[in-house]
Amino acid sequence: MSPTQWDLPPELCCRPMAFVALTGLDVTYNAIHRAIWDAFCANRRADRVPISFKVLPGDHEYPKCRTKRTSYEWYIPKGILKTGWMNKHLNLVPALLVLFYELDWDDAVWKEKQSECATKVEIVRTSLQGRNTKVAVVLIQKKTPLPPGEDLVASERAASLCNACDLSGKSLFVLPHTDHLVGYIIRLENAFYEHAQTYYYTEIRRVKSHKEFLNKTTHQLLFVRHQFKIAFFSELKQDTQNSLKYYRTAYSLVHELRTHETNMLEIKTMAGFINYKICRLCFQHNTPLDAIAQFRKHIDLCKKKIGSAELAFEHTAWMSKQFQSFGDLFDEAIKLGLTAIQTQNPGFYYQQAAYYAQERKQQATHLCAHEASVSYPTPDHLETPSGALDFYGQRAWRQGHQSIDPPHMEKEKGGILALQMKEKDVPHSELIIALLSNAVAQFKKYKCPRMKSHLSELLDYVMCDYRTERWWSLLTSILSTALRCSYLMAHVKDYITYSMELVGRASTLREEQKSRIEKNLIKVLMNEVPEAEPDCDQASAKAAQALWSDRMSLAGSNEFTIEVQDYVPFVQCKAKFLSPSFHVDDPVQLHVYLRHRGKCHPQFFHTNKFKT
């Protein structure tokens, strides 16, 4: 399923790692350079420092650094967080830029090589355009270096090179290309990591220094923005304890913002982002109860922040995504070793996400039911010149607008209409089914039969839509899931009902699959235990067999009434009079035709003195 506006951005969900750019390496045509690059990026074990490496050309252009602001006196922020900011610091602006250069201490043309290296360093510094990124040089050498202090020529030339390149001694490294390359690389990246730590520490101090210039009247958005940035830089620095502290502060500040209809979505979006970060870090710190408490607080604070009544489906979509994302985090934590229990497992969050997805569908059906004559607005108010929003959670047609009233009512109406018409194309039923399936899987995993049974009832809700809209392949898929659920819980009536529909004309199952289901159906009708459904794990199937044995032993002469008018039956019926007209009190003859799985069986019924 393609990403939607409610999906969390990947740069928010990933683990932030220090970004180090490597330049001067020709990994395509130089075998030594390729071996160095492979040693950096191949088979990175968990015990190696968390760094994201990229090889870039020496003249690569990095994002321009804006002029440093000296005063905030007349500055009015246009939003909370720019959409490109996280990606910029994860993938575009390096904490450290490392220049690799082939140069031995005893090189015959040392002076010329030193001058060339200094020029390359200057080009790199110019390309960084005033950023605080650290610069380091690694000399690729053929020989293994002597112990420190024993090679006087090396010491002298290292000092000369540092002076020519304007580097500190801690920023010049030697990499001998020997049999112990990986060992040298690990030592190098540990040193790189220390430089990156210093860079992020400097960035944190830089952001903190703005605080004294802000006031709480016009700069409320900046207080949130700066706390988020400090927290994110702390994550890049791997200081997760301080990161959690700053995210908590940012979360409190975002709920202190004055809310109105025009900024409600932006506030909820940022609250959702920060909540995700807090919960993720709590799970990472092995404090799941803190994560659960934070999430409950988040839902309590946001569930009534609906926004525009005409776009109420957006709120339920957002709420659904909050529960789904927390369920994903919970599930990920369990895979990493956290213990879940019956009363607290990811299934409850997927279930709630499904409820909100159902409510979203109902709201969309009501709010997006436009006349056939209503067409998508032109120009498209959801388009932006860059193809993306400037700030998270803002409207495309009024970006940067922070006042209470919309600036252009016609644009506002056009934007709302465009969103409503886009919502009509959302595959709501697919979203609901995916969430319900996740929930059922979790409840099955943690042995919650009542919850699993309850969710199975919700499958019926989805089936109604598929029957009405004649989506036979989807109906078959969900019927198969429902049949499996009813088998595992030994629900006899449901099992019979789903079996009857799956062997019918609407089912897209193969003939051999229908035959298998039909045989099982006959077994149940004969008070015998059916065979296990496919894709049931062995333990669950064994437990189900015991349940069925109990049901069958107590069945006696049970009778079930199946309301076939609500289903696509496996038997088709039609009647035909044998004459176009009859006289009063004359016997009437008619034929009744029954069709079952493509075979037609005529049955003859006679009536006497049929009154007309």
TrEMBL record:
<protein>
    <submittedName>
        <fullName>Trafficking protein particle complex subunit 11</fullName>
    </submittedName>
</protein>
<dbReference type="Pfam" id="PF11817">
    <property type="entry name" value="Foie-gras_1"/>
</dbReference>
<dbReference type="InterPro" id="IPR021773">
    <property type="entry name" value="TPC11"/>
</dbReference>
<feature type="domain" description="Trafficking protein particle complex subunit 11">
    <location>
        <begin position="263"/>
        <end position="504"/>
    </location>
</feature>
